[in-house]
Design a protein that fits this description.
By secondary structure, the chain is an alpha/beta fold. It has 14 helices and 20 strands. It is elongated, with a radius of gyration of 24 Å. The structure holds ligand BES, manganese (II) ion and zinc ion. GO terms for molecular function: manganese ion binding; metalloaminopeptidase activity.
Length: about 500
């Protein structure tokens, strides 16, 4: 794991493999961002000119490498684009810093240590740069012998020193500690998402959660197949029973003695979604190991909340199952009796996420938390609506939906509010059961949200995050987002817990 430190060292004498500076897009060409004054001085104040000559513009995502000035201990300077120069009296936004730091860290894979001389105005900027660097440095290398040959990629950047940070200032120290805890847990969520489904079945996921919970003083309970049967969890069982690797429901309980609020996070944890008897066609299942991204996000957020010691009680529910076709699998036409007591006619076994979530939502509701947030790679329809970088937010409370949206924006996770139109409920009417697990095709993401709403306890504030689009990045890396599992929603959940802890969220 990449280490993050604050440093007061001056760039020239610093022993590192590279010095990272920021370059912004000015009206008349690239502008060197604050924080790199000593570096610019060593180039006789000509760094912007040099960068311009090399073709740099300061655009986001841009990387320009140049030899360090004479006398520098570090051999190279890496200039990363920060995008548009801020207006007068304004500073670079947190997301711009995060992304630039992420690009720099990824570029420097294979290096041992880099010094980041990016613009830091306050502790929050240091946190943003640190977070971007730690997230951008991420690589999933569990199945490759890294460094063996060029094809196998390079080890992540070993150490990031933030120049211009204040190592003895409490706010800066807290910002670095927060960035470290959140990024490490988020990267662990990415590892879980990227782990192939033959190695991460529900039992294996539950074991990982159990070990981490014990390490961080979180109470953990795992319901296995027998316990699920005894408890009447017909939704989770109905989805998971076709697989030789049976389902699990994991409950993580983080409590703080001074907490006055209680949040419940519920995650969809389909460790592989083949579609079940309603089998997905080839071309639609290669990335379906990512269907546990919601549970991974919930897991990461609860552990991060514990590591940060947030003054709020947080319960995490991981609804884990493998959706497989077999002789014991649920058939289209079967009726399941859910944990809530409602019956569901399963018309399509590929609409499985809402079934496992329904049981977990009902279980979460029984504790009467102040709010429930579920996270799920739930529908292809949400990807059609919002693309692959934005998640949809639905809720049974307008103010809460806005609060979640604001939290998402604050942490740099693109999200957008979606409605839950009542008329779409009609499509889920079943002649046989209380409700069907399918409705109208149009607005499929909203139909799924409406289904979930039926399993939220009376009077409980609830939001549903459909992260099917941004959970797994099939394209190339960008900013601090790698290829593969992204860890989307972890930072929104942590932010919600933080806001709740200080009483700023209802
Ligand atoms: N896990 C999928 C949704 C998904 C699709 C996530 C693509 C990430 C990328 C979900 O279980 C599913 O199969 N949904 C169906 C629902 C339909 C059968 C009502 C879908 O969206 O097609
Ligand atoms: Mn499915
Ligand atoms: Zn699914």
């Amino acid at each position: 794991m990449t280490a993050l430190t604050l440093s007061t060292a001056a760039a020239p004498g610093l022993r590192a493999d590279a010095i990272v500076v920021g370059v912004a897009k000015g009206g008349k060409g690239p502008v060197v961002a604050p924080g790199a004054e000593a570096v610019d001085k060593a180039y006789d104040g000509r760094l912007a000119d040099v960068l311009g000559t090399l073709g740099a513009s300061g655009a986001e995502g841009e990387v320009t490498k140049l030899p360090a000035p004479a006398g520098f201990k570090a051999p190279i300077v890496v200039a990363v684009g920060l995008g548009a120069l801020p207006e007068k009296d304004e500073t670079f936004g947190a997301e711009s810093l995060r992304r630039a730091a992420g690009v720099a860290a990824r570029t420097l894979a294979g290096a041992k240590k880099a010094a980041f001389a990016l613009p830091i105005e306050d502790a929050a900027d240091a946190g943003a740069i640190g977070e971007g660097a730690l997230l951008g440095a991420y690589a999933f290398d569990a199945y490759k012998e890294i460094g063996k040959d060029a094809k196998n990629g390079k080890a992540p950047l070993g150490e990031v020193a933030l120049l211009g940070g204040k190592p003895r200032d409490a706010a800066y120290k807290a910002a670095v500690a927060r960035a470290t805890a959140v990024s490490e847990e988020l990267n662990r969520a990415r590892d879980l998402i990227n782990t192939p489904p033959n190695d991460l079945n529900p039992e294996a996921f539950a074991a990982v959660a159990q070990a981490a919970a014990e390490e961080h003083g979180i109470k953990v309970q795992v319901l296995d197949v027998k316990a699920l049967e005894k408890g009447g969890y017909g939704g989770i069982l109905g989805v998971g029973i076709g697989s030789v690797a049976g389902p699990r429901l994991v409950k993580l309980t983080y409590t703080h003695e001074a907490a006055s609020k209680h949040l419940a996070f519920v995650g969809k944890g389909i460790t592989y979604d083949s579609g079940g008897i309603s089998l997905k066609p080839a071309g639609h299942n290669e990335t379906m190991k990512c269907d546990m991204s919601g549970a991974a996000a919930v897991f990461a957020a609860v552990v991060a909340a514990a590591r940060l010691g947030l003054e709020v009680n947080v319960t995490g529910w991981l609804a884990l199952a493998e959706n497989m076709p077999s002789g014991s699998a649920t058939r289209p036409g079967d009726v399941l009796r859910m944990y809530s007591g409602k019956t569901v006619e399963v018309l399509n076994t590929d609409a499985e996420g809402r079934l496992v979530l329904a049981d977990a939502l009902w279980a979460a509701s029984a504790e009467k938390p102040d709010a429930i947030v579920d996270v799920a790679t739930l529908t292809g329809a949400m990807m059609l609506a919002l693309g692959n970088r934005t998640y949809g937010i639905m809720a049974n409370d307008d103010a809460f939906r806005s609060a979640v949206h604001e939290a998402a924006e604050e942490v740099g996770e693109p999200a957008w509010p979606m409605p839950l139109p009542d008329h779409l409920k009609k499509g889920m009417e079943s002649p046989t059961a209380d409700i069907a697990n399918m409705g109208e095709r149009y607005g499929g993401g909203l139909v799924a949200g409406l289904f979930l709403r039926e399993f939220v306890g009376e009077g409980i504030t609830w939001a549903h995050l459909d992260i099917a689009g941004p959970a797994f990045n099939e394209g190339g890396p960008f900013g601090y987002t790698p290829k593969g599992g992204t860890g989307t929603a972890v930072r929104t959940l942590v932010r919600l817990a933080e806001l709740t802890a200080v009483g700023d969220l209802g």
